[in-house]
Amino acid sequence: MNRADFPDQLHLGCGGFAPDNWLNTDGSWHVWLAKWPLLKKMALLSGILPPIHLEHPWSPSIVHLDLRHPLPFPDERFTAVYSSHLLEHLHRTEALALLREVRRCCRPGGTVRMAVPDLAHYLAEYRRGLILPEAPGHSPSDTLLYGLHLRPAASPGKHSLLRTLYHAVLDYNSHKWLYDRDGLLALFREAGFAQPEERGVLESRIPAIDQIERVERIGGGDTLIVEAVRQG
What we know:
This protein is of the alpha/beta class. It has helices at residues 29-34, 37-46, 92-105, 119-127, 140-148, 161-169, 181-190, 215-218, and strands spanning 9-12, 23-26, 63-64, 78-84, 106-117, 197-198, 223-229.
């Protein structure tokens, strides 16, 4: 795809969800394998990919991006940038660097919107003694750590050498840093956004936000959303 033909709205960490009118990007190797179905089949047969990935097709239109590196886009390229449940998978220094890159790539007057798990929500559940039946163990602390998703409760066990190396190098799944309202607002301000604001689900300056923001994914009250307009 010629960069001049890119949509002017950027979707970071899209997973397999690739709505129209957005440039959908993700760092997973599923993006690359979607363009090479024979290699994907070989990865499944060799055990590098677990069988569950047969049930989750990825669009070949998704662009592969490792967000730990500078974004490969010119200044002031996009009118909107969106991500859902992405920043927590980066270390805070990486999340800050990404937000600075996002600001660079966003046009003046453009909107940046980031949704993350709300640390305050999980701590409130812990304080009231919530125990989820699907969480390992039988205590509020087990439920808290299960929800924070910092590390799995069990060792990953034995995998093929290639799969072990993949997870050791990339480690996309676990959470690296979590945010409450004040923490995420501070991150935005540190990245150069003057007036970031907490927003509700589907409450946005981005037109047709319902085309990219999935209520079934973030509408349960455990998600924090901050939005900011890039000033000149």
